[in-house]
Structure formats: C-alpha cells, structure tokens
Amino acid sequence: MSTPPTEVPSRRKDERFKEIGAPCEWPELYRPGGYHPVHLGDTFSNGRYRVFRKLGDGSYATVWLAVDNIKTQYVALKIMMAKKSSASANVELTISNRLEAMAPDYPSSKHVMMSLDTFEHDGPNGKHRCFIYEPMGSTVTSMVEKLPWDPPRTFRSPSPHYPKWMAKRILKHALTGLDFLHKNGIVHGDFQPGNLLFSIRGDLNSVDESKLQQNKANITEPIERLDGQIDKWAPKYLVISESLHQYADLTANLEIKISDFGAAFWVHDPPESTLSPVALRAPELIFKEGFDSSIDI
C-alpha cells in the first residue's frame, strides 16, 4: 500500500512520477491538499457539470470547459486546491459573494468576472471549492501571439504587440473593472495581463460540442509512478490546456474582464505577502512596506 504524499517534493529523488515532458501542471501537486484529479467526462455537483476540455491551470486551481446539464450551456469550472479551499477564511468566496451583491449598482462590474455558481467537491485529496464562470477567450498575455493579423512591428518593438486602438480599449476596461473592485474595498493582489480575459464573440452555446472537444493530441500518455505502484491521488493522465482564443471577440466591440481572485484581499485586512510576480511588484512590496489597493496600480 502506497503512502500518501503530504508535502510537495523539493528534490528530484522525492518525486513519485516518471518525467512526462508535456506543458502541464506538475503531477507532484496531485496529493492530499493539492489539485483534484480530473478526467475528461467527469461530472460535478451531482452530475450537473460535465467537463470535456481543459482551459488552464494556475498556482491554486485548474480550469475546465464544461456543460451545464441543467441550463444546457457551456461554463468554465474552476477547481481550487483542497488546501486552499479548506482554509478557515475562504477569502475568495467571500469576495465573490460581495462582488455579486454589489454588481447591480455598478455598471463597471461588467468588466469583472462574476461567479455563476459555487459548491464543494469531495475528492481523494480533500474538499475542493469550485467556482462556475462564463467561458472566456484567451488572456491578454497570450492573445497577442494569436492575433489573426500581424500588427506592424518597429525596431523598438520587434515582438508582437496589440494595435493602439486595441491596447487603449484593453486598458480602459481593465481600469474600469479595477475601479469597481477598489470602490468595494477589494484589492486584486495579482493585477496583470495574465488575469485579464477577452470575452467570447457571439454565442458560444451555438457551437456544437464536437468542435470544442479537447484535442486528443493534447492528452498525455498515462502517467506512471517510479515505484510502479498505483497512485490514488493523481489522474491517470494529464491534459494540456487549450484556450478558446479562436472564439475571442477582437472587433471594436471587444470586452475585457478581470479574473482570478485567488490572491485578492480586503483593503482593511491585507495579508503578510502577495502572489504578484517579482517583475510586476509595486515598490512597497519589494521593500516590504505596508501596502493597500495602490499595489494594483
């Protein structure tokens, strides 16, 4: 009988699995308190949501495209790590509830992702808080690499970049959404292009599920333990993320929404530290000074 891994390995000799070599989440994070093992076709919330494509993964969660069998529509299912979900103060949940309550009073709330449903899911690694959101296109970070046209480049800007009109619109919507958060005492804590999403063009629900299915080429071979034992905490295979960038609205009607509140906090109750990438940290974070909502700016 295999022993449950209680901590993330810090050295290669502690790792359980053979090298996979695919751009996926680290399989060692499938452990008690970690990610929930998901297989395509799995259902959640008493069979209401069925996953059929992976949209992404992050520090605390994996995100999947699913079918809502009750409302017959597509949704994005975010499954938090068990350890993150079981924290005594589930800040993300309380913030989500606050945003939903205040949204009707703020037109600017349309630029912030709102949870459509939330529930807990029991799995081999613990209880996982799950959030349901509307499906979105790619992030602002990655969409620039997938633009259907090639913006002119200059000597000063040899890498892909957004045309000026699009960059201005992205910034306007991002700051409008941020204003909504700050007026309600909420600091995002990890405000960056990777957490800004393009809205979907038209009605995604009109697209047949067969066209949205996960590409089988982006499903890894079965993952294997180095000791040959069967692992109870990890999935049988991993799934490479496939964004919905081809369905993003890139017209003059494009809309940007702020996502991922895993690092968010109440301005009156800041944490000891934040998850902001070092290159994007505000000076007060770098010098370990007191901080507030200004770190988002």
Automatic annotation (TrEMBL):
GO terms for biological process: regulation of mRNA processing; spliceosomal complex assembly. SMART domains: S_TKc (SM00220). Its EC number is 2.7.11.1. ATP binds at K84. It catalyses: L-threonyl-[protein] + ATP = O-phospho-L-threonyl-[protein] + ADP + H(+); L-seryl-[protein] + ATP = O-phospho-L-seryl-[protein] + ADP + H(+). PROSITE patterns: PROTEIN_KINASE_ATP, PROTEIN_KINASE_DOM. GO terms for molecular function: ATP binding; protein serine/threonine kinase activity. Keywords: ATP-binding, Kinase, Nucleotide-binding, Serine/threonine-protein kinase, Transferase. Residues 49-297 form the Protein kinase domain. This is non-specific serine/threonine protein kinase. It holds the Pfam family Pkinase.
